[in-house]
Design a protein that fits this description.
Number of strands: 0
Oligomer: single chain
Number of helices: 6
Structural class: mainly alpha
Distance between the termini: 36 Å
Strand content: under 5%
Radius of gyration: 16 Å
Shape: globular
Largest sheet: none
Order of helices and strands: HHHHHH
Amino acid sequence: MQKHPEPFTNKLTTKSLVAHLAEVPDPRINRNKDHDLVDILVIAVCTLLCAGETFNDMEDFGKAKHEWFKTFLKLRNGIPSHDTFNRVFAALKPAHFLECFLG
């Protein structure tokens, strides 16, 4: 009788999206941090998963789902603007962003 391999799910951790994205180093200088990096990244990833494509989409999606995001993000200065999303993603090192999902 053939033995089946262990289910793949046994090897995975149940780490949340927020926990994964919290590991990304913040490239911004302290005086320019009106929004927590993890808030920006979570809204961006959720937007992309829901077929959003642009920084404007990220701002619009964040505003539309603001009440939901407030249940697990700080959002101390509300939803970031499209310009904030643009500046943050321009400063991020792609390898760090990828590493948070693979590591």
